[in-house]
Input
Amino acid sequence: MYNKLHLPPKYRGSFSIIYKNNSWLISTSPLLSSLQLIFSFNRSLLAKINIIYIFFIIQVLALLVKSYSKIVKASFKLNLFHLNIHEESSDMNSQLKLYLIMKKGLKLMKKNFYQTWAKSSQDI
Output
């Protein structure tokens, strides 16, 4: 036996919610009757989806921490290199070289981040 829950008159034409045996049926009516959309949500299915969602969030956070640590290490190395160049000479040519090296390093870090992201998304 279905227990049909009707919404207030303002929303009555848009959809109705039906509860049966631990399942929710959300059906659209007159406005989208040509599509005949019926969605069934089971509590255990929602629990599984939530667990997968939480696992995905943990994976993303781990990836961000991993990428952040690589960026910190690379920036530390670039800062040391920056200090070495300024100790040797402070002319414009060495500063231009430093800028180009830093730009290339950032491109490599960005590429590495996207490759790591692609690998982790394939694991999921």
